[in-house]
Amino acid sequence: MDPKNDAPSSRRQIMGSAALGAAALATTAAPAAAQNAAAPSSGQPAPLVAPRDPQNAYPRPPFPRQQQEWPGLASEMDPRPDHGETSYRGSGRLAGRKALVTGGDSGIGRAAAIAFAREGADVAIGYLPQEQRDAEQVLDLIRKEGRKAIALPGDIRDEAFCRRMVDAAVGELGGLDILVNNAARQHTLPSIEELNTELFDWTFKTNVYAPFWITKAALPHLKPGASIIITASVQAYEPSASLFDYAQTKACNVIFAKSLAKQLAPKGIRVNAVAPGPYWTPLQPSGGQEPEKLPEFGAESPMGRPGQPVELAGTYVLLASQESSYTTGQVLGASGGSGFP
Predict the structure, then answer these.
(1) Beta bridge partners of 126
(2) Contact between 88 and 62 (Cβ < 8 Å)
(3) What is the dihedral of CA 20, 22, 23, 24, to 10 degrees?
(4) Cβ atoms of residues 265 and 258 within 8 Å
(5) Which residues, other chains included, contact 3 with Cβ-Cβ below 8 Å and sequence gap of 6+?
(6) 30, HSE (Cβ side, Cα atoms, 13 Å)
(7) Which of 35, 148, 178, 182 has its CA 20 to 30 A from that of 290?
(8) Could you write out the three-class secondary structure of the chain?
């Protein structure tokens, strides 16, 4: 990053804090539109400059009962998740960078893609063909920032597609220096007796094999200063009984970051993980939660609500940016006061 374009000194002071993950959220993910209105009665917050009580900053349960077919669409959720479409404001922290975000159509990947574009990066997003409607919205938002937006639909359970996706991203963007392995499969089942090999394989192929294939294909294109981020989960530390397969894959993602960081540090490439949970994304109504429990999703957290994807956008920007140049092999958590790390 050019020193002339560095963020204000307050951000550098925050980087010196031990509470890295919390500081990143507090300084970069908070909505920044210049309004001073109260949250509307719909439960969707108005963007504010002034600090807000995080307990009530976004919708709280109970939520309407709802269920979608896998993989689910953000555009059909009630309430609609906030990915920062109207609230995230950039400041050039990723100017000229080139990013590939898997699962970039919705949820946390969508929030990261929007934030990257508003920080000055060109962005390619991977997603399933069934998610095209959500993906089009993200691509439009990226283009409105004057950045390149590359659509890469396909199934990352296919190793050949993973290679083609990376090659297409590199070709269309003119390079690659930020890789976010975010796409995931989550499906709740009460008993191991109901979990067959096909379902177990589906989860592991999506959550463990695909990041391996994608990262291996991307590595020849990554130069010193590049950043790899993988989305893990609080499930790696506090696994739910009904997410037996998913929780195992998220533990794999944590080790992915910690081990690969040691391999790639001599190459000047950083690798980190983010461990969120619970967050209001299409994973939940499309099989990630039991339908009867979804209305109270997030109520058990100390905040009394689930997180919204925009609340993690700043964490991904921080890990992608030069500001975190000494941060590698780390897992940043954001779970509303519970879980680890």
Answers:
(1) 102, 152
(2) no
(3) 80
(4) no
(5) none
(6) 16
(7) 182
(8) CCHHHCCCHHHHHHHCCCCHHHHHHHHHHCCCCCCCCCCCCCCCCCCCCCCCCCCCCCCCCCCCCCCCCCCCCHHHCCCCCCCCCCCCCCCCCCCCCEEEEECCCCHHHHHHHHHHHHCCCEEEEEECHHHHHHHHHHHHHHHHCCCCEEEEECCCCCHHHHHHHHHHHHHHHCCCCEEEECCCCCCCCCCHHHCCHHHHHHHHHHHHHHHHHHHHHHHHHCCCCCEEEEECCHHHCCCCHHHHHHHHHHHHHHHHHHHHHHHHHHHCCEEEEEEECCECCCCHHHHHCCCCCHHHCCCCCCCCCCECCHHHHHHHHHHHCHHHCCCCCCEEEECCCCCCC
Residue 338: the pLDDT is 84
Predicted pLDDT at 341: 75
Q: What pLDDT, in 10s, does the model give residues 316-329?
A: 999 999 999 999 99
Q: What is the pTM of this model?
A: 0.86
Rg over CA atoms, the chain:
19
Sign of the Cα pseudo-torsion (307, 312, 314, 318, in order): positive
Positions marked catalytic: 246
How many CA within 13 A on the CB side of residue 104?
Answer: 31
CATH of the domain spanning 71-334, picked from 3.10.150.10, 3.90.480.10, 3.40.50.1980, 3.40.50.720: 3.40.50.720
Those residues of the chain that have pLDDT short of 50 are 1-46, 48
| 34 CB neighbour count, 10 Å cutoff | 8
pLDDT digits (tens, 9 = 90+) for 49-86: 558 899 999 999 999 999 999 999 999 999 999 999 99
b vs e for 264-294, b when ≥16 Cβ sit within 10 Å of the residue's Cβ?
A: beeeebbbbbbbbbbbbbbbbbbbbbeeeeb
- Six-digit token pair at 113? 């893609």
In the chain, the amino acid numbered 129 is: P
Domains in the chain: boundaries: 71-334
Q: How far apart are CA 236 and CA 249, in angstroms?
A: 8
